[in-house]
Specification:
Elements (H helix, E strand, L loop, with lengths): L12 H20 L3 E2 L5 E3 H8 L9 E3 L6 E4 L4 H11 L7 E10 L11 E10 L4 H17 L7 E7 H10 L7 H9 L6 H10 L4 H14 L9 H7 L8 H10 L6 E3 L13 E7 L8 E5 L3 H4 L7 E7 H10 L6 H7 L6 E5 L3 H16 L4 E3 L7 H10 L4 E5 L4 E6 L5 E5 L3 H5 L3
Parallel strand pairs: 1-5, 7-8, 12-13, 12-14
Antiparallel strand pairs: 2-4, 3-4, 5-6, 6-11, 7-9, 9-10, 10-11, 14-15, 15-16
Helix pairs in contact: 1-4, 1-13, 4-10, 7-8
The protein binds one RNA strand of 77 nucleotides through helix 2 and helix 15.
RNA sequence: GUGGCUGUAGCUCAGUUGGUUAGAGCACGAGAUUGUGAUUCUCGGGGUCGCGGGUUCGAGUCCCGUCAGCCACCCCA
């Protein structure tokens, strides 16, 4: 027997329905928030990915050459480079802001773990051409909208928000050299997984003196991780004080305006690993810290330019299906298989069964065909039993709206599976009787 | 890529110090009660015990390798 390749999944009907359930929430939310769906190729030139992330990325990509060809390609590990490429090539004719969403599979050649596979479904939303804090908040609002749509509450998940410019200022005033700013951000990002001593020691390794590194760890201890919360009024007031660039104040004001106050906290240790984020950054985590990050994103104002477009501000986020599904399962929020199918509109309008007489048996196929021609989802039973009770049980299990019991070639009993009421009906009137009103 | 733990039916798991033809529940299918959704009973299909070697008269059980899953590192676009 062949096995599926490492880190990939087989989707049997129940599993695929669960994926669709998640994707439906993503799509509905995107559309309600005014985003338009786009897509690009599954694979790109390898260079598209190395431009942004350097050659180090190659070992984490599935790359290949066409037999006898010269170009090297790679399966997309993410969508942002494609998006930047697509935007850059039509930038002049696109509206500002442009709001795009995308929902397809990505491929990464990493070692799989819980919450991390080599092929997964990802959802991206991006607002391009708007550098305001309102756009930042609108982006987070869409992300939260999907979480809420799928049944998660502020008790279940936390949106950890930060701004790179703020912590860059903090690092600068602590004496960090501008040339190692990237390493400084990475250092902050490791705060939550290190003991204080190790954290301070690593801070010294990038050139901070131990007092300054320790001071930063004290600041983070008060504000980050489990202690992170919505910023106090006094903190926002001092952030917006005259003579300095306000960073947190406009962001949190915009988040509040979008009704996100109970979802979001300020966590200065969130820096994100990617080099290209320039301002607001955020991550979504399960509230108690279980599982990996559910989603992450931020502002990337230089990226479009890097891909050959005009200087264009942008903000966006990505969410994968893997961790989200684990969190839903952990919390008992993934409905049962039948319920998922029903919510996807996959339950039949009618199950047609026979009363067991040869005449009715012979009429089943024709009745099913007639109902389908009328645009209804009609099924027949494939069971051989003539036990009506068992067949009705079958109808209940597939959540059919009606069970049609053929009594003869012309007449039927129609049972409403919801109300349990039933009545006689001519075969010719069945489609009209069952049609959704 | 490095290290650790685990692999028995579709799922959850039994399987004695190595000993005949590897079991149960659920799920799936058929039948019984001659027509109404959670009942009961009977029967059935399904496993090269992840795969390959080795030790042994004999391996699901012990040893080695390999593959896969999980966990930590790495990375997290």
């Amino acid at each position: 027997m062949f096995q599926a390749p490492t880190g990939t999944r087989d989707f049997y009907p129940a599993e695929l329905n669960r994926l669709r359930y998640v994707q439906d929430a993503w799509r509905r939310t995107s559309i309600n928030h005014g985003f338009e769906e786009i897509d690009g190729p599954t694979f790109e030139h390898l260079d598209l990915y190395t431009v942004k992330s350097g050659d180090g990325i190659v070992s984490e990509l599935f790359s290949f050459e066409r037999f006898g060809g010269e170009k090297t390609f790679a399966l997309r590990p993410e969508f942002t480079p494609t998006l930047a490429r697509m935007y850059a090539s039509r930038a002049a004719s696109l509206p500002k802001p442009t709001k795009w969403f995308w929902m397809q599979n990505c491929y990464r050649a990493e070692r799989p773990q819980r919450g991390r596979l080599r092929e997964f479904s990802q959802w991206n939303c991006d607002i391009i051409g708007d550098d305001s804090a309102q756009a930042d908040a609108e982006c987070i609002a869409c992300c939260v909208g999907a979480l809420e749509e799928i049944g998660l509450s502020p008790n279940d998940v936390r949106i950890r928000v930060n701004n790179r410019r703020y912590v860059q200022n903090m690092l600068r005033s602590a004496g960090l050299d501008e040339t190692v700013m990237d390493r400084g951000l990475s250092w902050l990002d490791t705060y939550h997984k290190l003991e204080t001593d190790a954290f301070v020691k690593n801070g010294q390794a990038i050139g901070l003196d131990s007092d300054q590194a320790y001071k930063i760890s004290v600041t983070l201890a008060a504000l980050a991780g489990p202690n992170s919360k919505w910023p106090s009024d006094s903190m926002l007031a001092s952030d917006a004080a005259p003579g300095r660039e306000p960073i947190y104040e406009p962001l949190f004001k915009a988040l509040a305006a979008h009704g996100l106050r109970e979802w979001c906290v300020l966590d200065p240790s969130i820096a994100r690993g990617l080099a290209y984020y320039t301002g607001m950054v955020f991550e979504v985590h399960e509230a108690s810290g279980a599982e990996r990050a559910i989603a992450g994103g931020g502002r990337y104002d230089k990226l479009i330019e890097m891909f050959g477009g005009p200087p264009t501000p942008a903000v966006g986020f990505g969410m994968g299906d893997v961790v989200l599904s684990l969190v839903l399962a952990d919390k008992g929020l993934m409905p049962k298989d039948e319920e998922v199918a029903a919510r996807l509109g996959l339950n039949p309008d009618a199950l047609v069964i026979s009363n067991g007489t040869p005449e009715a048996d012979g009429a089943v196929a024709g009745v099913v065909a007639e109902l389908r021609r009328a645009g209804l989802h009609a099924r027949r039973s494939y069971k051989t039993t003539k036990n009506i009770g068992k067949l009705i049980q079958d109808a209940a299990k597939m959540r059919a709206r009606y069970c049609v019991i053929l009594e003869s070639a012309e007449s039927a009993t129609v049972k409403d599976m919801g109300t349990q009421g039933q009545e006689g009906c001519g075969v010719a009137e069945l489609a009209g009787r069952i049609a959704r009103r």
